[in-house]
Amino acid sequence: MSALLLAAWMAAVPAATPISLEEVRAQGRKNTQALLSLLDATRSEQDVRLARAPLLPQLSFSTSAGGTYVGRERGIVLVQTGEGTFEQRAGETSPRDSGDFEISLNLSQLIYDRVRWKQLEQSGAVFEAAQGQAREQEDASELEAINRFFALYRTQATIRVLEATVQRSEEQLERALALFEAGRVGRGEELSARVNLGNDRINLLLRQAQLAQDRGQLAVWLARPGAEPLEAQAPESLLQPPLPTPSFELALAEARQRRPLLQALQQQVRAASLGKEVASAGYWPRLLAQGAYLRRGPEADAVFATPRLQNTVTGSVVLQWDLFTGLSTDAQLNQARATLRTSELNLAQTERELEAEVQRTLQLLVTQISAAQLASENRETAARSLALAEERFKAGAGSTLEVRDAQLKLTQAELTLLENRVNVETARFGLMRAMGTLSPGELK
């Protein structure tokens, strides 16, 4: 019955979609978090254009057509009392109306404004910082995708190890039955082998829940359908001996040069320094040129259809200097100084943390390589121990308990080797992330 249940489980597993580590790395850099970070960089790029806009010529056109109507009013009016003579008397004025038509073209050009120029430089530094943050997020997203990929691969490989364990338990049960029927062992050996097989099948079934969870986590991170049954393909690096590790000095120098986060914080310091210059620029005057062309009159024909009439052209150069602004410029300058100091402290702290991260990830990689080598040796020893126990059992000199103990040791050794070998790969990518070399150009 248990064999039928296991077969039913195998039949219920949907066909998997194979995915390679290279695909995971490429798709991980384009997941939702990475795309949101890129949108932040895009907004910062447009801020540069907005900061440049006031420095370019400003040209505007407007036209209007309107009129005024004034009704009868009580007041002093001129009354003709004779030929050529008038007299002011109280009376009512007649209704009157007038038109108001206008066409205007206004041009202004900023000649000098230190604030605007420094704001443009500052927005450029902020944009470069946003680009660095976007690259940092791409690296973080890719590393998370790599970790989820290897988590899925580890579960898949664990299931294969457990399947091999089930097969060995089935073979052990067959041997125990044959020896029992031949009268060479007691009934207890056959019952013990049957219980061991049942436990191994249970472990295999329970691992399927972990497989579904790991598949879903990887698919969601890659912005794929959450129910897609992904299957991690074995990376070539797992089939080869681990690569040698770089020295700490080389890794740290690489990290200081290429880590996007460090570059982003350096640009933030630059932006904060320019922010101080923007604030201090408030003490400087501004110079701009203005020009206007205006056509205005009470009749539409004169304004819109007779070019030789109603023409007015004006021009001026304006100097503006805020001599006293209630000490607001001084307050803004103090705020900018505090912001600059904050950025410098954050950069210094990140540099220290980066040094510790490089040392930690490098030491972890060295440790995992050594552990994987020991695990490989243990696996070979456990395999020889199981072969010896099975030979003794066949010869009637051993027991199911001895064989079971050797089987468990082999299974544990295989799982330990798998765990450590996967940890070597994740540690290697973690070091690449710390060094800033986790980028599309580094894909192999």
TrEMBL record:
- Indicate the segments annotated as coiled coil, or none if absent: 333-360
One MF term in the entry's GO annotations: efflux transmembrane transporter activity
Q: Which UniProt keywords apply?
A: Cell outer membrane, Coiled coil, Membrane, Transmembrane, Transmembrane beta strand, Transport
Look up the signal peptide feature and give its range: none
GO cellular component, alphabetical, reads: cell outer membrane; efflux pump complex
Q: Please report which protein family the annotation says this sequence is part of.
A: Belongs to the outer membrane factor (OMF) (TC 1.B.17) family.
The cellular location(s) given in this protein's UniProt record come to:
Cell outer membrane
Pfam families linked: OEP
- Extract the InterPro entries matched here: OMP_efflux (IPR003423), TolC-like (IPR051906)
Top-level taxon of the source organism: Bacteria
Q: Which source organism?
A: Stigmatella aurantiaca (strain DW4/3-1)
Positions of transmembrane segments = none
Q: What is this protein called?
A: Outer membrane efflux protein
